[in-house]
């Protein structure tokens, strides 16, 4: 198994809307998420560009889902991405991870 199974997946980055507080963008004090990679969602939230519409794929996701992917802004990704856990990464299943993987025909993770 890969050291980080997420680098062989990326499904969560191509199915979910990535919403976070706009103050996380780099045009705010202490913000780090590149503002050019985001869109305004409402008065206080932003979304990663590419995840705001019906067909979702985060602009920062590079590679082929289910094979080899990486986040181009990994060190500066939004908090919601930082806290998302692959199934079994923290010792238990994550139904959101399993659902994302299934949408791309990938089996659930059973061991991290």
What does this structure look like?
It is a single chain. It is built from two helices and five strands. The strands form two sheets. A three-stranded antiparallel sheet has the order 1-3-2, with no helix packed on it. A two-stranded antiparallel ribbon has the order 4-5. Strand 4 and strand 5 (68-71) form a beta hairpin. The chain has one domain (5-103). The chain has 112 residues and is α+β, with helices and mostly antiparallel strands. It has helices spanning 79-83, 95-103; strands at 19-21, 38-40, 45-48, 61-64, 68-71.
| N-to-C order of helices and strands | EEEEEHH
Number of strands: 5
Total domain count:
1
Terminal-residue CA separation:
8 Å
Low-confidence blocks of residues: none
Helicity range: 10-25%
Strand content: 15-25%
Shape: globular
Strand order, main sheet: write it out: 1-3-2
Summary?
By secondary structure, the protein is an alpha+beta fold. β2 (38-40) and β3 form a beta hairpin. It is built from two helices and five strands; from the N terminus they run βββββαα.
Secondary structure elements and pairings:
Blueprint: E1 19-21, E2 38-40, E3 45-48, E4 61-64, E5 68-71, H1 79-83, H2 95-103
